[in-house]
Amino acid sequence: MLKVKNLSKKYPANDQFSAKNVSFKVSAGQVVGLVGSNGAGKSTIIKSIIGVLPFQEGEIKVNGFDIVTQSEQAKKNIGYVPDDHSVYDKLTGREYINYMGSLYGATKEQKAYATDFLAKKFDIAYALDTQISSYSHGMKQKICILGALVHRPALWVLDEPMVGLDPQTMNLLVKYIKEYADDKHAVLFSSHSLETVKKACDMVIFVKKGQIVRRVDLRTSKDVDLEKMFMEVNEVDNA
Q1: pTM more than 0.90
Q2: Are 7 and 58 in contact (CB under 8 A)?
Q3: What is the pLDDT of residues 98-132, one digit of tens each?
Q4: Inter-residue long-range contacts of 51-56, CB under 8 Å, 24+ positions, other chains counted
Q5: Could you report the per-residue pLDDT of 177-197, keeping only the tens digit for each?
Q6: Contacts of 167 (CB under 8 A, 6+ apart)
Q7: Phi first, then psi: what are they for 212, rounded to 5°?
């Protein structure tokens, strides 16, 4: 579903690469987590994948479509939940979901699935006809999640999705991430919550200074201590 090959990205005002020779893939049915300290390059990698940031070198394909040369087709296969829950505050929740669905070519049935089933699942159905500007932080995060899923994308990308969510909703989201992957979709997300990563992911990729420094397959290493591993990866910087 997602193939990243030798991705390198440097910002104009920065001498160092924010992403350097990054290569990995996420297959259908798989959940992959990006882990790293602040400034490690996780968001740069994610924003390059979803087509927001141009990059100097490498190749990114989503469901077979190149994010640069076939950007429209590639983006139609992506659902993205940003870390800042960007939404249109003047719309109601229902209007926002339908608008996002129209942008991505969602069917009537897909829109209904989001406004009915998913809205109830994430306990936001009662507020769908209320203007988003009145929503709490957590409610805005929920409506972002529904907007990202309305077209049932092949690749679901989440950047720090747990921010602002209560523990019950966090657990619900982890379960749904796994359910979504089990339904032959691919999921990629970054998180500072190592406990959440361990619960949700099949594979964990550690990023440091824009490079992949370690990969852990949790399907074969279930007892791994991610916190200890995180400290080991970053111990030179901490010292």
Answers
A1: yes
A2: yes
A3: 999 999 999 999 999 999 999 999 999 999 999 99
A4: 51/75, 51/78, 53/9, 55/7, 55/8, 55/9, 55/19, 56/8, 56/9, 56/10
A5: 999 999 999 999 998 889 899
A6: none
A7: -80, 120
Per-residue tokens: 105: 């070519």
Instruction: Using CB atoms within 10 Å of the CB of residue 3, give its burial: 0 to 12 exposed, 13 to 18 middle, 19+ buried.
Output: middle
Cα separations in angstroms, 121 against 66, 116, 117, 173: 34, 9, 6, 10
Long-range contacts of 46-50 (CB under 8 A, 24+ apart): 46/157, 46/159, 46/188, 46/190, 48/7, 48/9, 48/19, 49/2, 49/4, 49/78, 49/157, 49/188, 50/75, 50/78, 50/80, 50/157
Query: Which of the 8 DSSP states describes residue 18?
Result: S
Q: Count of residues for the chain?
A: 239
Q: Which residues pair with 215 in a beta bridge?
A: 205
What the chain holds in terms of domains, given with CATH numbers, is 2-77+154-238 (3.40.50.300), 86-152 (no CATH)
| Share in percent of the chain as helix, strand, coil (round to 5) | 40, 25, 35
